[in-house]
Write a structure and sequence with these properties.
- Helix 5 runs antiparallel to helix 6, helix 5 packs parallel to helix 7 and helix 8 crosses helix 14.
- It is built from 15 helices and 11 strands.
- It is α+β, with helices and mostly antiparallel strands and about 500 residues long.
- A hairpin with a 2-residue loop joins strand 8 and strand 9.
Length: about 500
Amino acid sequence: MTLTWTDLITLDLAKLNESASEWKTAAEELAKLHGTVRDGLVKKSEAARWEGANATVTREFVRSAAKEVDGLRREAQGIHAVLADAHEELTGIQKQAKALSDEARRGDPDRGSEPDPGLLVSDGGGGKVRVESSICDAKGPSQRTQNMIRWYAETLAGLVSHAAEVDAAVTRALRASHGADPYNAGHAEYASLDQDQLPRAMKLAALGDDAKPAQQAELRRLWQSLSPDARAQLWTAHRGDLIGAGLLSPSVKQVAPDRGSGRHGAEGAEWGDWITRTKMQGLVVLADGRGLNDASRNMKHYLDDTGTPMELPVDKMLTDDDGFQGHVDRRHLLNHEAQWREQALAEYERNGGRPVAMPVETPNADYSFSMAENPNWFYAVGSARSNVTGVVTVVPGADGKPAVGLDYQVNVWDRYNWDEGKGVHIGSFEIPDGEPSRQHKVGLAQEFNMAGSGSVQHYELGNGAAVPAPEDPGRAGERSDPGRHARDGGGDVDR
């Protein structure tokens, strides 16, 4: 039976907690019994001055009984550990699922002039989650609402999958712990669910580039399930594979900031619209010639009318604009450095001074590029949202003190659209307000999503070092870049 969203929301975890407590009590009582048998019966049997067949059989029986009681104790301890881990993890997953479902239903009625409507959440079958707008709009849901619907549906379905995987891990661990012989206790021993989940994560990570999207998604969920100690083992063994599997992909909402220009092709094109299109095609060439390469490329993609997503060159954005680099440093790194260091060191101490790894992620933060200081990125994206995802590790340092490091990447996203009141003015070339956005309405251009992540950087937390900056990508995307034309898919613009 496939776990559903309703199953997850209504799961009675109090019973699981009660069962874990009962097994804890059983383990404690068996430990007392084992002590009594070991220190009483076994010692007396071994010390007794008697010989013969009866003595040999009795001694072996007492030893076997003591061993069986110890096996029962170890099995009970393992079952308690597995059930306690499962309760803690499923409680967190269920809490997150309930909170996100409630958040989706509420929407954001206080969001300025464009409130986010409440969404309807229900089972979609096969572990999927159906999310729909609660408002019937003749124009259809806005682009922002469509993005919200997709994000909630995918995120909630991921939580359902995560809960199902935890349940499967518990089942495997209990079967291995109990074994196939009901009269012989003490098989596989478990101190936590890590013993089931870490080998699976190692196996998936070892696939590297051969891992399929579903396997990569499972690996990312396993990463969340593992203890800080197990994460450190996985990170040390497969850092590159984990990064390649999208371990640092952002989980925060990546949605359009507004409803955009409306439905694509909702109106018929008029003569003036074709004139505007010709102007914008000329502007693509002009901007490219003036060194506004990213603005030129993005506008060309808009006019190509495909609507396909485009990758943002985040390292280039950071090296091109000192203000943006400073925004990332202050908002996403320096503001969280002390808290991350403190949390990671606490985990390190709890783990007895052994290496630990802790995932971190910052909230969304907007940044607006200046037309005066950076017209290239002003016209390429305008304002964009960003966050930082990473892994904080603590390992014993050479001097005996713990070393706290952060491996992180900067993530940026936006939707390329033209607001109603926006035009463009480069040099003496001007397109009046509203005309660029109309190209989408009449089907001559199409808005598209843009997203990208920077290269992974390493930063030592708490030692006063400067935040690292990515290497300058150099000619990438410029007129002198020999691979640019092919990478952009060709086109009719002379490079």
